[in-house]
Amino acid sequence: MLERLNEIEAAALEALESVKDDEALQAWRVAHVGRSAPIKMVYKEFGKLSKEERPAVGKRANEVKVALEAALTERAEAIKTAELARSLEEDHLDVTLPGRPVRHGGIHPATQTLRRILTILADMGFQVYTSREVESDEYNFQHLNFPVGHPAREMQDSFYVEGGKEDNPLLMRTHTSPGQIRAMREFAAESPENPPSIRISLPGMCYRYEQITSRSEIQFNQVEGLAVGENITFSDLKGTLNDFARRMFGQHARTRFRAQHFPFTEPSAEMDVECFLCEGEGCSVCKKSGWLEILGCGMVHPNVLQAGGYDPRRYTGFAFGMGPERQAMLRHNIKDIRYFWGNDARFLEQF
Amino acid sequence: MKLPVSWIKDYVNINISVEELASLLTLAGLEVEEIRYVGWAMPDYAAGEKHEFKTYGLSWDPEKLVVAEIREVKPHPDADRLVLCDLFDGKDQHLALTGAPNLLQYKDKGAFEKPLKVAFAKEGSEIYDGHKEGQVLTKLKRAKIRGIESYSMVCSEKELGISDEHEGIIFLDDDAPVGTPLADYMGDAVFSIDILPNNARNVNVLGIAREVAALTNKALKRIDKKPYETSGDAIAEKVKIEIAEPELNARFVLGLIRDVEIAPSPYLVQRRLRLAGIRPINNLVDATNYAMFEVGEPLHAFDYDVLVERAKGKEIVISTRTAEEGEKLTTLDNEERTLQASNVLVCDEAGALSIAGVMGGLESEVTEDTKNVLLEGAAWNFINIRRTANHHNLPSEASYRFSRGVHPALAEDGVKRGLYWMQKWANGKIAPDLVDNYPLPPSDPVVTVTEADVKRLLGVEISAEKIAELLTRLEFSTQVEGTSVSAATPPIRMDIGEGIVGVADVIEEIARLYGYDNIPETRIGDPLPPQIGNPVHDWEEKLRDQLATLALQETVNYRMTSPEAQERLGSQGEFVKLANPSTPEKAVLRRSLMASVLEVVEKNARLRDSLAFFEIGPVFVPNKADLPDEPRKLAIAMTGRRQPSAWDTSDAPVMDFYDLKGVTHAFLAGLGLKDIVYTPADTSTQPGAAFHPGKSAQVTVNGVVVGAFGELHPVAAEKYEFADTAVLAAEFDLETLRGVQPAYEITPVPAFPPMLEDIALIVDESLPAAKVEHLIRQTGGKMLADARLFDVYRGEQLGEGKKSLAYALTYQAPDRTLTDKEAAKIRKKIVKRLEYEVGAELRG
Q1: A240: which chain B residues are within 8 Å (Cβ-Cβ)?
Q2: CATH of domain B755-842
Q3: What is the spatial distance between Cα B484 and Cα B453, in angstroms, rounded to a whole number?
Q4: Least CB–CB distance from B557: residue in A256, A316, A343
Q5: How far apart are the first and last CA of chain B?
Q6: Which fold does the domain B65-186 belong to in CATH?
Q7: Searching chain A, which residue's CA lies closest to the CA of residue B560?
Q8: Mean pLDDT for each consecutive 10-residue tract of chain B (844 residues)?
Q9: Count of domains observed in chain A
Q10: Structural domain boundaries enclosing A62
Q11: The Cα angle at residue A289 between residues A283 and A293, in degrees rounded to 5
Q12: CATH topology match: B65-186 vs B235-437
């Protein structure tokens, strides 16, 4: 009987040698360790054995059974490993095929630039103040120290709107500055004898009657800043704008202040930032000058403070204004300002 | 304004480079926009000099381009139109070949007694090619022309980059020193200066020179106050001036010069005028322009004899008055002009002579035959001149200056300077005195500014002495008393105000000369005002982020549009109209934001197969009594495939109503809104017929209608050039939406496992799904955490007019795991309720 067990073991292990896949393995399992496998037959014949034979045969039969089951497990592992290796070998993609496109949303580049500017200004205590786009001559010009017939009005050709009065026509605001008057009046109304300090940013769409070209638009965003208080100076203006420039254009941004003229500020200045594309060497973007005109600024004109309800003998203030689209054009090398309101998907997708 | 730098140097002695000068002016508010070199050495950028200005032009090599004299003009043996110039350049003799037509007249005249002075270019010179269009650089090389060796040339203005003139060579003035480098003799650099409205006093050489002198702390060379000898009868015996309205004509000055000889001006004068952008005419006209450029006072020259004739033996009375409406005058450009009542005229007894400050009349202008000249210098109201010049579309050097404001004091200086040049160039005899009617001298403000004022505005301490010193450089008369300076405005400028405005004006001048660069940089010392924020703005920004997260692209459109473009969505009511639209396509302000966003869909229809846009902004609604209303809106538009096509999914599903509803709901839910109800849109209240009546919905939040959305009405859609997929759009009123209170509280995530179960219900086709869901939720009560519709089925076995709605139900208790029994009980209740209320049948 022991002899037979040896034969059973040897035959089974030999048969296992040729098992190469899962299917064969299953067949082998049924044949060699299954219910009617030879080893199981040995157990069935156990009763026929003599008392003396039984312990040795029983021990041996168990050994064979365990050995065969172990061989089966080992073989199964080997087959699985081989299968995996084969499938990894065979199963691969052309990774150079394009990914499936995703329609993704986005924020308009003009809004993105506005946000950047407003965030920096907000960090510096300038809170957003918004006001209307259709204005009266009074708010857009007269209160801002552009008297009727003033030459500076020619710098801001206007779109007029039907329905105004002859001495106070309606127009599309040419700058966000009428908001300065509206804000000052609103704040001053809180306490006319003792108006509070102001620190606001004024974003919004403005309009000028121009030829639409790659460089000029009839509609554009502007952001102004206004600080009014009993102790606001031109040196504060320089400090504030240099802080702004460092955050907007980089920590090493160099600026310069040039004398300028705006009817609503006195003294007035223009802040240039050293061209961040050529670092002052001169390129086509800065028109070979090394400097980029970034914003206009100045100390709020006494007549404007007065119009806003702030006594210019007691209060001073500064204001500045800039164009987000221009900044976006510089940053992204956009050559044509018409892209902004053209809303071509091929432009918008790039932001 | 174009200004040759050499001219500035006539009035102030400076030893800084052209670029340094440009930089100085630019920082002081006289922005040099570009520098054109005409002969002087350009900075060498290749050597690493930094660019500061847009620079162009031509430098003349001092070794190769020199003043020379032609001693004889000889014929070319083989060519009639060419001549050979016997020429001396100070060192060597040359034979220069040229075809200049203005030399032909000197051919065969033998050796000249008085040689012709010319600009001579030697071999190897770099100049512009005179025969090519535009400015093309060329290097003079040795060549044989018709058998004669040529290696040098005499130059035209075009070849030297002075002007486009190439009809002949330049004849220099007789005193031009032979052998001198041309760059030294007549080289220049021309600034283009942007003149700001407050800088009217500086539209002239003296003004700029005064600024340069002040900025560099150098002395300004002044024009001699008594520059010329006079002779003959005094002008006062011949001419009288009457001014009707001093408000429009504050001053009128006349001078007289007799026996002038008309001829071309000296070459150097012509060259300067050309560089300044003025065409030289003759020595009389050039004298008026030259003096205007120097002093800043536009002058007008009358032919005196014409006026004598018009006066018919009587005394000449020059008067100024406003025109009769419709009065006619032929101006010197030979145009008959119909005048407006606001136009101011210069007249004599016989009628109008010229449009004051804008353009002279034809009859009395100086001509080649003029012998005696009456020279006018006057002061006009700048607003009036601006209107007149604009109305007649007559921009001129004179109206440019007068419409910005010229100080009346300059009228006298200008006339004297004009007479001076006429005498010098045309040998006239100046009559003694001037006639001067000056009814309205301006009050030149005296401003008191203190050290404290300066500190208060600029944040920097400047002593009274320093303040006075700076202002004196700009010709203010100053007086220091303690810490206070009283500064009298010089009678050359009209931009300094009175009182506190004057203080600000004067402080700007102090700051300019002190240097903006020298003012320190400080943090604001004033306390930060209360921070109140801008909730409306912040909220709109949140909307933008929400919508972008939902794969929508923000657009920004023109607010100006046309009624036709807007009314493709049906009537929009009254528009806010522009009074002066730039084009009919931009004649009104939009009333429908949705129409704007749909235009973006139209524009991109062929570019992408999946489009989804939104815009946030105002629309404009007329308001008879007041400024228009500017309600803020949100509009959405979508069309095309749910996802852009890929290489293996070219037939991805196309978006329909439910895609937009999904976006809408996610967007509203994202705002924290809970009670959102969709009902079929009430087409009767919709503006026009924007939406498909069966495929659109109205959105109600907390019982308030906030907007509507749906598929476009086919009639509207047809008016656009869309692709052939359904176009979906939405519009929300933001003020209304903002008014709806969001719920910020969240529901906790359950700690116990949920029980999930699906049920399918057969109901009538006409029953809205929302009704079924409502009943399920209501009946399920607190233990029913969710009921999600996952399938809608129609089929034969359900029968005609029936549909099956399949829901995934989630049973959930907050404090324990529900048993099967409990769940079965809830389900039973739900089914029963539905059977009873809407005749639903549980599908087996």
Answers
A1: 523-524
A2: 3.30.70.380
A3: 9
A4: A343
A5: 92
A6: OB fold (Dihydrolipoamide Acetyltransferase, E2P) (2.40.50)
A7: A219
A8: 96 93 94 94 74 87 96 89 92 91 89 94 93 91 84 93 91 95 96 90 96 95 87 92 96 97 96 95 96 97 95 94 94 93 95 94 93 97 92 91 94 97 96 96 96 97 97 97 97 94 97 96 93 93 96 97 94 93 95 96 94 97 91 97 86 92 95 92 64 92 94 93 94 95 86 91 92 93 92 89 94 90 92 92 84
A9: 2
A10: 2-90
A11: 105
A12: no
